[in-house]
């Protein structure tokens, strides 16, 4: 089979990528793995690639970001190719839909509205436009349209944000902190008297209120937890390095020794940040 010159063109851009995807899914000459996929099997990869993009940005790994964005773009191309095969829509229609949405949501840029607005006012206008779009899709409930496939912590954050728009919210962070204390006490009591399902329920309540506190404090809970994960990795690896210098591995050490090294690492980080 003669190769399409576009596929070998290093400067073929978007048309090249679309043609590569079409060939990968070709029933006769494509890749068996790619042919075998469907929307549900590819969706987890799409989510994973989005997090890879976020990770590269958080690490300021700009040399990696180009590739990660390409991986994420390929996910959209993959889904669009499968949709085209089913006669649902094409990649061009995906792009046109996004363009129409951005033009409609930015009347202060592409329309007659004034650009003389604060970022806060523009955010309120954006939410008003999105609410009208949901109404046009017959999404009548306040919580309609919050994606089920979001990570649970992020979805909790978005659900509470949506509810707050209609006044279902605590007036300030103090009330949220009181609720956290209440939920923590309930969880402590539940561990000795309730079933595992009931304990999980109480734990979920505590996490849900923590997500609400994040919103009240203008913190992205997913970003905050990712940062803490990275901090834990960095510090634990430093503990491992100190142990290695003593000829030990963590499993050959005691909790007391590792705890002392953990405190030492924290102190060293604080000293470095103040120097």
UniProtKB/TrEMBL annotation:
Classification via SUPFAM superfamilies: all-alpha NTP pyrophosphatases (SSF101386)
Give residue ranges for domain NTP pyrophosphohydrolase MazG-like: 37-110, 176-237
Q: What is any Pfam family matched here? A: MazG
Q: Which GO terms describe its biological process?
A: dATP catabolic process; dGTP catabolic process; dTTP catabolic process; dUTP catabolic process; response to stress; TTP catabolic process; UTP catabolic process
Q: Which reaction does it catalyse?
A: ATP + H2O = AMP + diphosphate + H(+)
Reported EC number(s) for this entry are: 3.6.1.8
Q: Which Gene Ontology molecular-function terms are recorded?
A: ATP diphosphatase activity
| Family per similarity comment | Belongs to the nucleoside triphosphate pyrophosphohydrolase family.
Protein name (Swiss-Prot/TrEMBL): Nucleoside triphosphate pyrophosphohydrolase
């Amino acid at each position: 089979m003669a190769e399409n010159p576009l596929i070998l063109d290093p400067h073929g851009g978007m048309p090249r990528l679309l043609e590569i995807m079409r060939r990968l899914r070709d029933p006769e000459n494509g890749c068996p793995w790619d042919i075998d996929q469907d929307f549900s099997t590819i969706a987890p990869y799409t989510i994973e690639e989005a997090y890879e993009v976020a990770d590269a940005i958080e690490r300021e790994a700009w040399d990696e970001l180009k590739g990660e964005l390409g991986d994420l773009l390929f996910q959209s191309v993959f889904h669009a190719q499968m949709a085209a095969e089913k006669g649902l829509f094409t990649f061009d229609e995906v792009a046109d839909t996004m363009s129409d949405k951005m033009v409609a949501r930015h009347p202060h840029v592409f329309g007659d509205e004034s650009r003389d607005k604060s970022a806060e006012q523009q955010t309120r206008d954006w939410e008003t436009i999105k609410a009208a779009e949901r109404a046009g899709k017959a999404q009548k409930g306040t919580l309609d349209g919050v994606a089920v496939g979001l990570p649970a912590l992020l979805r909790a954050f978005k659900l509470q944000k949506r509810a707050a728009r209609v006044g279902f919210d605590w007036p300030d962070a103090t009330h949220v902190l009181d609720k956290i204390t209440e939920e923590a006490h309930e969880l402590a009591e539940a561990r000795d008297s309730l079933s595992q399902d009931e304990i999980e329920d109480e734990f979920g309540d505590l996490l849900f209120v923590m997500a609400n506190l994040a919103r009240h404090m203008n913190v992205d809970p997913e970003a905050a937890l990712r940062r803490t994960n990275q901090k834990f990795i960095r510090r634990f690896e430093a503990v491992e390095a100190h142990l290695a210098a003593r000829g030990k591995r963590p499993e050959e050490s005691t909790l007391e020794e590792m705890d002392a090294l953990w405190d030492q690492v924290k102190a060293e980080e604080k000293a470095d940040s103040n120097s």
